[in-house]
Amino acid sequence: MARKQSKFKRKGFDGPEEIGAIKKSWAGRTRVLLVYPNTYHVGMSNLGYQAVYALFNENDHIVCERFFLPDSKLYTHKQFISLESGRPFSHFDSIAFSLSFEIDYLNMLEILSLSGLPLNSKDRDINCPLIIAGGVACMLNPEPISPFVDCFLIGEAEVILPEFIDNYDPSENKHSSLKKLAAKVPGIYVPQFYKESYNKDNTLRTFETIEDVPEKINRRFVKNLSDISTQSTLLTPNTAFSNAFLIEIGRGCYHGCRFCAAGYIYRPPRFRPTSQISESFDHAFPLTDKIGLVGSAVSDLPGIIDLCEKAHQHHRYLSFSSIRADALTPELATALHNVGVKTATIAPEGGSERIRKVINKGITESDILQATEFLVTAGIPNLKLYFMIGLPTETMDDIEGLVKLCESIKNSFLTFSRPQKKMGNITVSLNPFIPKPFTPFQWTPMDHEQSLKTKIKYIKKGLKPIPNMDLQIEKPRSAYIQTMLSRGNRKISLILKQALKNQRNWTKTLKSAPIDPEFYTYREIPINELLPWDFIDHGIHKQFLQKEYKKAMNDQISEPCLMDDCNICGVCK
Question: What angle do CA 430, 100, 120 make, to 5 degrees?
């Protein structure tokens, strides 16, 4: 039976103007503070965060309130109070962090510090709230922040959170409560019950239990998405998607791009029925004229054109994250135009045919140019192109291919824009490759910063003469920090604490770090090495990832996931 949807109601609320905010009496209820370690503008645009807020508050015996970092960087501890009732952190039984990105780890530490709570779990006494954490970053590798967190929830909230709630009693002894959770609820990871040891070269030697808890943490997931609907529970004008009603169309992606963590940890890929998404549209129509479809492969959704047509008939706007070039047809492009899409995002990822084989992207230059034709002809004036640089085996020939591909796209763009008598813009987004756990590239090093800067300089020079083409570049230093956090073990917590002490001065922190950051960023990891995240079981055979890694090194492609029972990767065993 589908979970009952939260009703939208306008309520008196002292914070930002919202529809759907929940205020409850505290009397006799377990008190949870749900923290997104970024600003309200960012946090309330996160559909997963909204879903967890609703899941907690569906329980009558729980009151869940929210906290976000203040917009100003000059905040003080006095601002560290809940959004709904204005209470400090110490008044709550549990502080729940929603962590989508490794780059927010330092924000988490700053929040704990300014809230007055000790950073390390072992230093917090029985009067301190229980610190829990979940989200995509935790599902990949929680170890860099494990000394700061009492309990991780590894998996999808709809499955694991109700069981956590049923087994969590804030009146119990903290150690006993954590042990019960770890023993009884699959997917619960309590770091203090596990101990690691290291070899002389700083590689991980052992990772063992020291209590009677599972050796492996099994990721929890929703097997049938038709049983639930994940959609906005609150609307506000003060977010990145102002007043947009967000609807999740599915989880995972069947294309098997070798760099994409979501494509592996959300296996098997699952789409929601079109009829269910259509019902979510009906929820949205009375509330707003903006609907955002959320998912890794929105253009692959069966029935996407019919959904666009329904939105068009009701004079609603639809937005999408990105569109696969090989999934685009003239009919889909026209449907996107009809629902108000002004900028379409295509992600070639790699600039050459060879590098796209390495990453198993599965699209050709012909697909990309044809997609450009369809979009511009349909009247969508602007394109955004998402590329990665520093990919495994990448050479300057591949970078030259990126520049030439952009030139070809621009020529196609011009050719099909002239009949429209309207010229839009092309934005090229360059992003350094970051190796992620549970992907075939988890063993590969990040490209060196100087190499990335050389490639960026070459691309800038190559694209500079092209009019109406803007360039957005993620800084290599930011990617370096993310790689360190992505592939780190518990020792990385020392660097995080030092960065907090140095007031976010990463240059100073990395120079004086107690451990070598390059051990985690620039080192190719041997296939047989014990990895910090190996204790998490996503159902994927490590041998499958190794096979994909070897195929990548030989420029070989793999077929997409069958999305059905098979024994290829291990998830459907």
Answer: 125
| Residue-wise DSSP of 297-364 | TGGGSTTHHHHHHHHHHTT-EEE-S-B-GGG--HHHHHHHHHTT--EEEEEEESSSHHHHHHTT----
Any idea which residue has 């360190």 for tokens? 484
One domain for residues 284 and 412: yes
Domains held by the chain: number: 2
Distance CA(126)–CA(173), nearest Å, equals 8
CATH number at residue 48: 3.40.50.280
Residues 435 and 347 in one domain: yes
Domain of residue 95 covers: 30-218
- Describe the crossing of helices 304-313 and 274-284 by its angle, rounded to 10 degrees: 20
Q: Is residue 273 part of a domain?
A: yes
* Inter-residue contact 206 to 197 (CB < 8 Å): yes
Q: Verify that 95 and 191 share a domain, yes or no.
A: yes
What is the percent of the chain where pLDDT is above 90?
88
DSSP element (H, E) containing 535: none
List Cα–Cα distances, 224 to 52, 58, 271, 273, 294, in angstroms. 18, 21, 9, 10, 17
10-residue averages of pLDDT along the chain (573 residues): 37 54 92 96 94 96 96 84 95 97 96 96 95 98 98 98 97 95 97 97 96 97 92 87 91 95 94 95 95 90 96 95 92 97 96 98 97 96 97 98 97 91 92 98 98 98 94 97 98 97 96 95 97 97 97 96 84 85
CA 314 from centroid of its chain's CA atoms: 31
Angle at 79 between CA 76 and CA 82, to 5 degrees: 150
Q: Annotate 113-127 with three-state secondary structure.
A: HHCCCCCCHHHCCCC
d(CA 293, CA 314): 16
Q: 180 and 42 share a domain?
A: yes
Question: For the segment 180-226, what is each residue's pLDDT rounded down to a tens digit?
Answer: 999 999 999 999 999 999 999 999 999 999 999 999 999 999 999 99
Say how far apart CA 58 and CA 158 lie, in whole Å. 12
The answer to whether the predicted template modeling score (pTM) of the entire model surpasses 0.85 is yes
Query: Cα separations (Å) of 175 from 172, 330, 433, 544?
Result: 8, 60, 40, 38
Per the CB < 8 A criterion, the answer to whether 130 and 120 are in contact is no
- Contact, 404 vs 366, CB < 8 A? no
- Strand-strand pairing, 250-251 and 270-271: antiparallel
Over the stretch 337-382, which tens digit does the pLDDT of each residue have?
A: 999 999 999 999 999 999 999 999 999 999 999 999 999 999 999 9
Domain CATH number, residue 466: 3.20.20.70
